[in-house]
């Protein structure tokens, strides 16, 4: 089992897509183990996107992500990091395939609705950053049907 950090960005919250997005992860069979809405501080946003700090879009990205509430989530499942990235689709909404969140709901590269961790190390770092008080430990009864 892996746990991945997923975040609905301010555009997704403003557009009223929170329910739609959570439904996709829940229906897939992932288990929600953390959920909070907050307006990110610059400090947390800068740490989260530190890897991009030398990119030309960095300051705009920090401004965007701190501009309003985000929905921070942690989802658990077998290969959850890859599964979630597949549900989300590639960065540019215009190039993302229909069926993915970005392919169905986004038209932009910056305003692309949602973030998902890209590997085990980043997932661990991001989960500790956004959920300093830890995650819920529980097991979905449906997992006996979701997994063989
Ligand atoms: P990802 O979210 O698909 O993993 P990354 O390359 O890690 O994409 O970039 C992080 C975020 O930075 C993207 O989701 C997007 O919001 C923003 N971003 C990436 N590339 C650009 C760009 O060329 N212009 C504006 N924003 C960008
Ligand atoms: Mg990324």
Report on the structure:
This protein is an alpha+beta fold and 148 residues long. It has one domain (2-134): 2-Layer Sandwich (Alpha-Beta Plaits). The protein contains 8 helices and 4 strands. It has helices at 10-14, 18-28, 42-48, 58-65, 80-88, 101-105, 120-130, 143-146, and strands at 2-8, 31-38, 70-77, 114-116. Strands 2-3-1-4 form a 4-stranded antiparallel sheet. The protein is globular and about 45 Å long. Inosine-5'-diphosphate (IDP) is lined by residues 52, 57, 61, 91, 109-110, 112, 115, 118.
Short description:
The protein contains eight helices and four strands, in the order βααβααβααβαα. It has about 150 residues and is an alpha+beta fold. Inosine-5'-diphosphate (IDP) binds near residues 52, 57, 109, 110 and 115.
Rg over C-alpha atoms, rounded to the nearest angstrom: 15 Å
Ligand identities: inosine-5'-diphosphate, magnesium ion
Q: In which order are the strands of the major sheet placed?
A: 2-3-1-4
SSE series: EHHEHHEHHEHH
Q: Find the CATH topology.
A: Alpha-Beta Plaits
Which features characterize this protein?
single chain; 148 residues; alpha+beta; Alpha-Beta Plaits; 4-stranded antiparallel sheet; binds inosine-5'-diphosphate; binds magnesium ion
